[in-house]
Amino acid sequence: MGDITDIYVNSFQRMLRDGEFQTRRASAIAFGYTKLLEESNEVLTELRNVVTSPRSP
């Protein structure tokens, strides 16, 4: 997840420096990225739980 977060942070900072983006658009994009990261985190948590759960005999 760290790599995804780094990509998000670096890309978002670059976007904010770009004069072509309006604040409203940047906010909408940030909202979308945040939702994607939250959902990715939930999926990774579920996967981790499956991988680390004790196996039945």
Can you give me a brief rundown of this structure?
This protein is mainly alpha-helical.
Question: Which properties best describe this structure?
Answer:
57 residues, mainly alpha
Plain-language structure description:
By secondary structure, the chain is mostly helical. Helices cover 81% and strands 0% of the residues. The chain has two helices and no strands. The radius of gyration is 16 Å and the shape is elongated. The mean pLDDT is 81.
Q: Give the number of DSSP strands.
A: 0
In percent terms, what proportion of residues is strand? under 5%
- Please give the share of residues in helix: over 70%
Q: Helix/strand-derived class?
A: mainly alpha
**Which assembly state applies to the chains in this document?**
single chain
**Average pLDDT reading:** 81
Give the radius of gyration: 16 Å
**Overall geometric form:** elongated
Distance between the termini: 32 Å
* Helix-strand pattern: HH
Provide the low-confidence segments as ranges.
none
Q: Give the number of helices.
A: 2
For the sheet with most strands, the description reads: none
